[in-house]
């Protein structure tokens, strides 16, 4: 219920922003961006998604190395659309681990890779935000309202660093078992978690072993994710350029990092609707751009999000359909042709069963009885069984 209230507030606030700035002014600014410009604006986000998929592949382990990279990119895009459309931005992480099962990646390794990759991505995000705040201090200075805003952002970033550090420490002690212990201490009983306690401990052990024996890979993955965050600056540069505003590389890096910080701070609002637009507006005003440029910048970034939501839903449909098809193939018995196999005869099968229960004496041989009236006796049972032993129509 709360998320719907927050969503409604966001819609109202966004509508007020558009009304205050003027739909006509916004339309005039958007008219400068033709379809070719929109395509160019979307290119950096594709680069970002590709680099982030590679950062995940680094921590997948041996079992995940056989997964084709383009398929891993599809799975990650499907998971990210769930993250984008749910509060908290974490709903798609379990989905990524589940979809890896299609490629024989054990659940514990898939879940561990998702946690490690998310940790590396978050650490890289913190460094990116700190770099953006540092550049903002250098470009705008520490005085005035801009300096106060940046100082507040720096304090908030410090809290974010403490939170990430605590998250890593909890992982080294056992992330899922710590959550389960906390739930038990609070007096709650979640049967789903308790039933999977051994599996959760196994995932925690896999994460801990990876940190101990593959810490260089974790550092490499963090570096790759940092490059992905930096690539967002090219999107910021392209948008401001096509809107007709001056832009430097350092300022776009700072704007991109602070925009990420704003979005992360409004995670509790579905889609960050309204809050993200207002934050972008204030951010660009702080760097000397007009209200029209600020709100148009926010709308173009929202357009990019909608495009990737569409792509993500398509990827989700593709990998979901493939997973369902593989599941049905496992459940459906396969019919295998066996050469020289006898057709199944229910009467003869019953006679064979009785024959096995009451074997004949060693000095007698009972001929097999045909299921058809008037048929000639067949060869001795022992010879017939010897020639067709193991033959079956159903595998």
The first-to-last residue Cα distance is 52 Å
Major sheet attributes: none
Number of strands: 0
- In terms of structural class, how would the helical and strand content be classed? mainly alpha
Number of helices: 16
- Globular, elongated, flat, extended or rod-shaped: what is the shape? globular
Strand content: under 5%
Number of domains: 2
Cα-atom radius of gyration: 31 Å
Helix-strand string: HHHHHHHHHHHHHHHH
Question: Fraction of residues in helices?
Answer: over 70%
Overall mean pLDDT score? 80
Runs with pLDDT <50, length 5+? 330-341, 361-395
Overview of the structural elements:
By secondary structure, the protein is an all-alpha fold. The chain folds into two domains: 290 residues, no CATH class; 43 residues, no CATH class. 74% of the residues lie in helices and 0% in strands. Helix 5 packs across helix 6 and helix 7 packs across helix 8. The longest helix is centred in the C-terminal third of the chain and has 41 residues. The radius of gyration is 31 Å and the shape is globular. The two termini are 52 Å apart. The C terminus is likely disordered.
Topology, please?
Layout: H1 2-21, H2 23-30, H3 35-58, H4 69-85, H5 93-99, H6 107-140, H7 144-173, H8 175-185, H9 191-195, H10 197-213, H11 215-242, H12 249-265, H13 275-286, H14 291-331, H15 346-357, H16 381-388
């Amino acid at each position: 219920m709360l998320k719907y209230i927050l969503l409604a507030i966001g819609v109202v606030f966004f509508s007020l922003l558009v009304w205050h700035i003027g739909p006509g002014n916004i339309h005039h600014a958007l008219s400068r961006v033709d379809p070719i410009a929109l395509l160019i604006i979307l290119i950096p986000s594709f680069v970002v998604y590709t680099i982030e998929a590679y950062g995940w592949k680094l921590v997948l382990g041996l079992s995940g190395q056989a997964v084709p990279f383009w398929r891993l990119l599809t799975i990650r895009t499907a998971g990210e659309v769930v993250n984008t459309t749910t509060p908290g931005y974490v709903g798609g992480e379990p989905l990524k681990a589940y979809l890896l099962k299609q490629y024989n990646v054990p659940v514990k390794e898939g879940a561990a890779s998702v946690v490690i990759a998310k940790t590396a991505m978050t650490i890289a995000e913190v460094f990116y935000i700190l770099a953006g705040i540092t550049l903002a201090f250098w470009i705008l200075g520490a005085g005035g309202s801009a300096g106060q805003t940046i100082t507040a952002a720096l304090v908030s970033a410090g809290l974010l660093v403490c939170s990430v550090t605590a998250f890593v420490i909890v992982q080294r002690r056992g992330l899922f078992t710590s959550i389960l212990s906390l739930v038990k201490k609070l007096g709650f009983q979640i049967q789903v978690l308790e039933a999977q306690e051994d599996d959760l401990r196994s995932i925690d052990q896999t994460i801990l072993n990876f940190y101990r024996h593959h810490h260089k890979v974790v550092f490499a993955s963090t570096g790759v994710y940092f490059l992905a965050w930096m690539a967002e600056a090219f999107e910021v540069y392209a948008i401001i350029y096509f809107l007709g505003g001056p832009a430097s590389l350092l300022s776009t890096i700072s704007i991109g990092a602070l925009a990420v910080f704003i979005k992360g701070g409004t995670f509790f609002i579905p889609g960050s609707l309204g809050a993200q637009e207002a934050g972008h507006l204030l951010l660009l005003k702080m760097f000397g751009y007009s209200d029209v440029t600020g709100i148009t910048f926010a709308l173009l970034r929202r357009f990019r999000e909608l495009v990737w939501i569409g792509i993500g839903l398509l990827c989700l449909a593709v990998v979901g359909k493939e997973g369902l098809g593989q599941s049905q193939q496992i459940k459906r018995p396969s019919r295998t042709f066996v050469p020289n196999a006898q057709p199944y005869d229910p009467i003869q099968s019953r006679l064979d069963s009785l024959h096995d229960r009451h074997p004949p004496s060693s000095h007698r041989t009972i001929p097999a009885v045909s299921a058809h009236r008037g048929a000639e006796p067949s060869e001795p049972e022992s010879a017939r069984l010897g020639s067709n032993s193991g033959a079956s129509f159903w595998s």
